Amino acid sequence: MADRRTAVYGGGIVKLLRLVGVGFSMALRRSVAFRINLVFDVLLAFTGLGTAVAAVLIVFTRADSLAGWSKAEFLVLIGTYQLITGLRGTFIDPNLSWFPETGIRNGKLDGYLLQPASSLFLASLSLSSPLALIQFVLGIGVLGWGIAGQSLTAAGVVSWLVLVVAGLVVTWALSVLLACLAFWAPKLQLDVFFHSAWQLGRYPTDVFARPIRVVLTYVFPMALIASVPSAALLRGPQVGVLVGGVLAAVGAAVLAGAAWRAGLRRYTGATS
Amino acid sequence: MRTAVLLGFRLRQEVLEWSGAWWFLLTLVVQAVVAPLIGLFVWSAVYPDDPSIARYYVAVILVTLMTESFEQHTFSERIYDGTLSHELLRPQPVVIGVIGMNLAIRAWLTLLGAPVVVLTGFALRAGFDWSAVLRSTPYIVVAAVLVFLWTFLLALTAFWTDRVHAVVGFGSQLIFLFGGTAAPIGLLPDTWRRVAEVLPFYGMNGLPAEIAAGRRSGGGLGYQLIWVVVLVAVVTVVWRIGVRRYTAVGS
């Protein structure tokens, strides 16, 4: 049992962090070696965020508030969304996007299972895409633009931080859970739906019709990645929301770990 | 005539080939409808009493599905993996294969996306005037040609760069912003509206949707056709320069 635990969760946290650091450093050196690609990625990150901000600014030429959110509050929301999207694109997507194809069907998972570290860690966090951090930096810029002139409380900032971390954990756990489906149905590629639902996180859930709002709160909790942390930052923390966010993160992470273990028990390998 | 027969064969072949990939096609439908759906909810929240907003965005969803183009995947990858060489050796224009696949994917997307459009239309009581929908048909056809030309033009940059997805992604952002998905272009600030009315993107999406939704009675076909001519000319020139640059190694 203890061995199995080590196989799934791996050794100490420090060792795993060191592995992330080494992988990140390697990926960064690979990325900056291709300078034209770097320019393209930077430009696309700028135009992507510019388009998102422009779409919202157009709305505010016609209205003073949207679903109870002012223009500055919306910028905080977009900044937070972009920041988490950047972190997801840097640390989660390079590993779990197309996992059914790369991990299960092509048998890359076999390699992970043979390596002396947690298979869940290797499959979900070992690769990184440092250029996606540009989105993170731009997100901070928009966030700064949004909070300029707003009066923030220390408690609000702390709860924003806690909820952003909780949102990231839930994002990671959801990606793992969707990837785990591949153990049972290798052809099912549900993460595209997750990515599509992700787009809706850029807007407060109050904008959407009730059925979509329910999906965004309980199925793909996109509310947690931007709306909830931004509301905590701007309107002060609410204990219930904070506890709910942390519990959701812990619950989702535990569920992801359990699903991964169950999936591994079923997995029989794809390569020789 | 020979070209039309070849295109017909290619279309039939591609429709059959793609029929097995319904799950993948469904994911494309979902990706295509997300942006217009966001626009629909956002602008319905701004103008809750204007039913033409819902009608317009339901039409945008339909136009988007009918005009989607993926040449950065279907064509550019052939440049990257060198299989374009096989196409160049065939006694037929390369573009026939590209158009055949484009039309097959669009046909499947429209078929699979139709329930989404009908459901959204009924759920929002969009109340279309069917004569307006019929009137929009030629505009949708030309919009489909424009989107194809635009995407194919950007996909041709694969002859020079391996970042074609970034280039096409940028092109899609322009369609989103100036084409009428982010906002109906009548709601853009004046200067931007005037710019958007001149650029080709409005003709790719917003114009046919506005006619189908009855927000505009007609006009603008000439503007669309001028852009078709311009884009055909640019695509032809870029294709010629690109093919001269193209080299492949191996069998």
Automatic annotation (TrEMBL), chain A:
UniProt-recorded name of the protein: ABC-2 type transport system permease protein
Q: Where is the signal peptide?
A: none
| Family annotation (InterPro entries) | ABC-2_transporter-like
Q: Where are the transmembrane segments?
A: 6-26, 38-60, 120-148, 160-185, 215-234, 241-260
One Pfam match:
ABC2_membrane_6
**Keyword terms, alphabetized:** Membrane, Transmembrane, Transmembrane helix
Automatic annotation (TrEMBL), chain B:
InterPro entries, alphabetized: ABC-2_transporter-like
Please give the coiled-coil regions recorded for this protein: none
The source's superkingdom equals Bacteria
- Pfam families (alphabetical): ABC2_membrane_6
Listed A to Z, the keywords are: Membrane, Transmembrane, Transmembrane helix
Query: Where would you find the membrane-spanning parts of this chain?
Result: 21-47, 53-70, 107-128, 140-160, 167-187, 225-243
Write down what this protein is called: ABC-2 type transport system permease protein
Organism field: Kribbella kalugense
